[in-house]
Amino acid sequence: PGSVSAAFQEYLQHLGLQDFPCGLGSWNKSRCNARRSSRAWPAGLEEAVPPGEESPEVLLELLRFQHSPWALPPDCSPQAQRLREVVVLAPELLRGSRVSQLVKSLRILDKGVEEVDEGLLQFQQLEELILSANHISRVTSAHLPRTLKVLELCYNDVGDLQDLCAQPPPELQHLGLGYNQLCGPSQEKHLTVDFWPNLVSLDLSFNSLTDLLGLVSQLTTLQNLRILLLQGNPLALIPPYRGFLVDSLPKLSILDDIYIWPEERQQFQGLAGQPELIRSEARLVVSIGEMKGLPNPEDFQQLEVACEGPVITCSYCVTYQF
Questions:
Q1: Which InterPro entries does this entry report, sorted A to Z (predicted)?
Q2: Distance, CA of 273 to CA of 294 (rounded, Å)
Q3: Least confident interval from 92-106, 117-131, 219-233, 256-270
Q4: What value does the mean pLDDT of the chain take?
Q5: Which of 234, 192, 227, 197 is nearest to 212 (CA)?
Q6: What's the Cα-to-Cα distance from 310 to each of 132, 302, 304, rounded to whole Å?
Q7: Which pairing describes strands 227-229 and 128-130: parallel, antiparallel, or unpaired?
Q8: pLDDT per residue over 257-284, tens digit each?
Q9: Does residue 146 sit in the same domain as residue 91?
Q10: Rounded to a whole number, what is the distance in angstroms from the first to the last CA of the chain?
Q11: Nearest to 256, CA basis, from 235, 230, 291
Q12: This prediction's pTM
């Protein structure tokens, strides 16, 4: 599937919501017809089941019994099981897009999704959206439900945050952008309180961000930020990297999965006021150990002394690509 909506429909088919014991069929037709016509069951006959049909209790037991042919595999999420049970109790939800209105957490991992499409707006109660390990390069914020609190996009191809920040979900608390294609310094301007007023957790790890000073100047506006991941970026190679962040963001609790203790914060006190220590350069020392398959330079030195004939000179070039 190319879109989130298509992947969700494929997921529903995998759950078998349209098939027995879920869905609409001969096993529950009288109950569905009664609800459709808004006619209540006669008093005292709520549990009466017509011949050839099954009660909701029996259908639920078929879903819950681990050895039942209709039971979900053990690796399925509790949310999937609850969704099937809700459909058994209220099969009329399968009409239209009413099922999507029940979903609060949606996880679509490694399904080849390339587009966050407009169909996502049908999830009117969605709070958590996990789209890791797909092929998403662009996220249009107008297609995201306003109720969203968690958005996880790690292991994708996101290289620009402009579309995501056009109309971002105002209540978002976690934004996961680790292992993407973000490059500095053009993206830092999208990481301010103007776009993310309630952000508590931000994952930017393993991108290509290089401007530590520029990034920190924007992150200081996020007054609710408590968890930050920046490891794996070139800017993390700067020697005073951790100390500068710890002192610059006094409300931060966890940096790169490591808790910030009061002793560490005291140790780096005042470092934020010394930006001259942040240099955009690094020195790398490479030591070459044993090399095989090359002539020994000492043999050529002996040849120059003992022989008057022509001398063969060899030179080698070692290239490091970063």
A1: Leu-rich_rpt, LRR_dom_sf
A2: 52
A3: 92-106
A4: 86
A5: 234
A6: 64, 13, 9
A7: unpaired
A8: 999 999 999 999 999 998 888 776 667 7
A9: no
A10: 35
A11: 230
A12: 0.77
Distance of alpha carbon 140 from alpha carbon 118, whole angstroms: 9
Residues 6+ apart with CB under 8 A from 288: 318
Q: What angle do CA 207, 156, 199 make, to 5 degrees?
A: 70
Which is more confident, 22 or 156? 156
Neighbouring C-alpha atoms within 13 Å toward the C-beta of 187: 19
Domain total of the chain:
2
Same domain? 112 vs 218 = yes
Distances (CA, A) of 45 to 54, 305, 318: 15, 113, 87
Residue 132: partners with Cβ closer than 8 Å, 6 or more residues away: 109, 110, 152, 153, 154, 155, 156, 176
208 forms bridges with which residues in the sheet? 183
Please give the Cα distance from 267 to 265 (Å, whole number): 5
190 in a structural domain: yes
The token duo for 163 is 């579309």
Per the listing, tokens 């690509």 go with 321
Q: Name the token pair of 269.
A: 């006190």
| Side-chain half-sphere CA neighbours of 193 within 13 A | 7
- Under the banding of pLDDT at 50, 70 and 90, the label for residue 231 is very high
Contact 233, 202 (CB under 8 A): no
| Distance of alpha carbon 112 from alpha carbon 157, whole angstroms | 12
For residues 204 and 177, the answer to whether their CB atoms sit within 8 Å is: yes
Question: Quick one: angle between helices 241-248 and 212-219, nearest 10?
Answer: 20
Q: pLDDT digit string (tens) for 205-218?
A: 999 999 999 999 99
Helix (H) or strand (E) holding 105, with range, is: strand 105-107
The CATH number of whichever domain residue 145 belongs to comes to 3.80.10.10
Q: Which domain holds residue 75?
A: 1-23+53-102
